[in-house]
Amino acid sequence: MVEEKISWLNGNFIPEDKAVVPIMTHSLQYGSGIFEGIRGYETSQGTSIFRLREHVERFINTAKIYGMNLGFSQTELENAIIEVVKRNNLKSCYIRPFAFYDDHTVGVGTSGKKISVYIAAFPFGKYFSEADTGLRCKVSSWHRIDPTTLPIEAKASGNYLNSVIAMKEAKASGFDEAILTSREGYVAEGPGENIFLVKDGKLLTPGRDSSILLGITRDTIIELMRENGVEVIERFIHREELYTADEAFFVGTAAEVTPILNIDGISIGDGKVGGMTKKVRELYFSLVQGKSTNHGDYLTVVK
């Protein structure tokens, strides 16, 4: 017998297949939902959710940017997430909090529309099948959206149409993933990942002014590498610097740390997974899997 999956909707734990909304729901029509992506990892202490507090904070901040009253406190949302993971008896998993306008009238206006909050969790492994072997990427002809168009620091559903079209172009051209540039032509990020380059023993990554989402995994990598004596520089990165980098890799909740071996048909470094990338992966997985003694506060154990 298949075990029933449990989700959380507006304060109630319900079977996942009972969480239904009308097809004409506002957020499905207009992309007005907001969401988070969070991972749980199997550790020696049990399933541990990585940087739960920071993810929920960003979820709440996204709601503030869009003027959405979620109706639940940070503590209530965190406890609901923990309980969903627990009730589904999950070990390594992906967690998706989602808030949306639960209203099926036609019209882009949101005044007076009901807001629903939903939490799902499910088993999850590698996002990229090439996570260990490395990706082939294409610099997209589509630019990353900028702050004059939409709030780029908000993790909103509509923003990701930008990612969808860039990824489609890359896949249609025979590549694994896209890299987007800002309107000014500087390197920004992948469709769902932040990007790092390695050059002369230093880590380079686009800064806040490059129209990026301030990733929580990105923040973690910067912190870990500086603690381990590696200089990390946040600055504008020109497209041609991608081609002359010694190494490159993506980071993100789903992507974790994924090497990039080729961009636009040009091999990065020697075309193999480099030593710095391996070091980043080792430190990151040691942390999220509970093997590191540092940053224990980043892990919320599901009890």
Structure description:
Strands 8, 9, 10, 11, 12, 13, 14, 15 and 16 form a nine-stranded mixed sheet that branches. Helix content is about 25%, strand content about 30%. With about 300 residues, it is α+β, with helices and mostly antiparallel strands. The model has no long low-confidence stretch (mean pLDDT about 95). The protein is globular and about 55 Å long. About 45% of the residues are buried. The two termini are about 25 Å apart. It is built from seven helices and 17 strands. The chain folds into two domains: about 5-125, D-amino Acid Aminotransferase, Chain A, domain 1, CATH 3.30.470.10; about 135-290, D-amino Acid Aminotransferase, subunit A, domain 2 (D-amino Acid Aminotransferase, Chain A, domain 2).
Number of helices: 7
Summarize the amount of helix as a percent range.
Answer: 25-40%
Gyration radius from CA atoms, angstroms: 20 Å
Q: What is the name of the CATH superfamily of the largest domain?
A: D-amino Acid Aminotransferase, subunit A, domain 2
Structural class label? alpha+beta
Mean pLDDT: 97
Distance between the termini: 25 Å
The total number of structural domains is 2
| Gross morphology | globular
> How does the major sheet shape up?
9 strands, mixed
Order of helices and strands: EEHEEEHHEEEHEEEEHEHEEEHE
Number of strands: 17
**What share of residues are in beta strands?**
25-35%
Question: The CATH topology of the largest domain, please?
Answer: D-amino Acid Aminotransferase, Chain A, domain 2
Flag low-confidence runs.
none
Which second-level CATH architecture of the largest domain applies? Answer: Alpha-Beta Barrel
Q: What's the CATH class label of the largest domain?
A: Alpha Beta
